[in-house]
Amino acid sequence: MKIGITCYPTYGGSGVVASELGIELAKRGHEVHFISYEVPFKINKYYKNIYFHEVEVIEYPLFKYPPYSLSLSVKMAEVFESAGLDIMHVHYAIPHAASAYLTQRILGKDSNFKFITTLHGTDITIVGNHSSFFKLTEFCIENSNGITCVSNYLKQLTLDTFQINKEINVIYNFVDTSKYKRNKLDKERLNLIKNNELGVIHISNFRPVKKIRNIIEIFCRIRKEINSKLILVGDGPELAYAKEITHKLNLCDKIFFLGRKDNVVPLLNSSNLYLLPSKSESFGVSALEALSCGVPVVGTNVGGLKEVVKHGICGYLYDPDDIDSLTNASINILSNPDLMEKMSYEARKTALKFDTKIIVPQYIEYYKKIINS
Ligand code: GMT
């Protein structure tokens, strides 16, 4: 198949999932055409069967806000025709699904341009249901040829929020368990966490929804009981605050800010606990990557994370502002080697259920279904 993919190319779960999907499809012999304003950061080397088409945004004095979504529509139409695409797959509803809908209208019925929209979370929970986008999000979902959600929670929330008659399919996020796997040598090699210390890690785009303040508070309390360090990976709006508070709390030698990292496997392998106490998480793909490396997760019970992390089995889930329970759960795991080992085993076992080999074929089948519909 020839598949077009549009996503946000920057640090964020939807872009990561879209990129990994493209890589997996290309590996299976499909031709994948990424259409965006930049090469997605995960597509950081040459991949056979992967092409990139840049959307140029023109600056003009009349435009206070250059209309990227319109240029994207035109680029989708060009690539659809020149590459002979079979299907277009857009990740994150706003504005990508709206651009794809416009492309469909530009090309007309005879072109057979069909598009699938994958909803990732904040495109429904924060952006999509904002009054300035609500009607558009609803329209785009209803007019996509196919719709997928990354969890049952997100599907239900979409149905509860919008008037949708279209069938919504759940296709879970996935992880390459042959790449994300435990290697104890990584900790020694990196030497970020010393032998007598335990590592706590969080990876995100540092948006308010991630509750970075709570993460630092929880770690502060863990530190009082456990000789440990916190690894923070990624960047975003809350990063400056996190650095400031770390400085004020005199924890600069205990909390590492590593910025964006393409390969987080050695960092996960230096860690014993993954923290994700977000306000809400539609799936939590970073938590799945941690589980795959045998790292238990302590996180939020709001949203779809509970479809990935089984409370009491491979981690613990609580209300994101229940700092006491989140801290006690973390200390419980970190201070109890047998529990840590057991949860680490269960974490890996859980991740294997979301392996690329199981999930990616579901997308391929769905593409075929929509193309033939
Ligand atoms: O986590 C973010 O804020 C980024 C966001 C995105 O759309 O880029 O992530 C969402 O999509 C990920 C991939 O499907 C999910 O794993 C995340 O749970 C989801 N984030 C939220 O729901 C907050």
What would you say this structure looks like, in words?
Helix content is 41%, strand content 16%. The protein folds into two domains: 189 residues, 3-Layer(aba) Sandwich (Rossmann fold); 170 residues, 3-Layer(aba) Sandwich (Rossmann fold). The chain is globular, with a radius of gyration of 21 Å. By secondary structure, it is α/β, with parallel strands linked by helices. The strands form two sheets. It has a seven-stranded parallel β-sheet, sandwiched between helices. Strands 10-9-8-11-12-13 form a six-stranded parallel β-sheet, sandwiched between helices. It contains 14 helices and 13 strands. The mean pLDDT is 95. Helix 2 crosses helix 3, helix 8 crosses helix 12 and helix 11 crosses helix 13. It binds ligand GMT. The site of ligand GMT has 21 residues, from helix 1.
Summarize the structure.
Helix content is 41%, strand content 16%. It has 373 residues and is of the alpha/beta class. The protein folds into two domains: 2-174 and 356-371, Rossmann fold, CATH 3.40.50; 185-354, Glycogen Phosphorylase B (Rossmann fold).
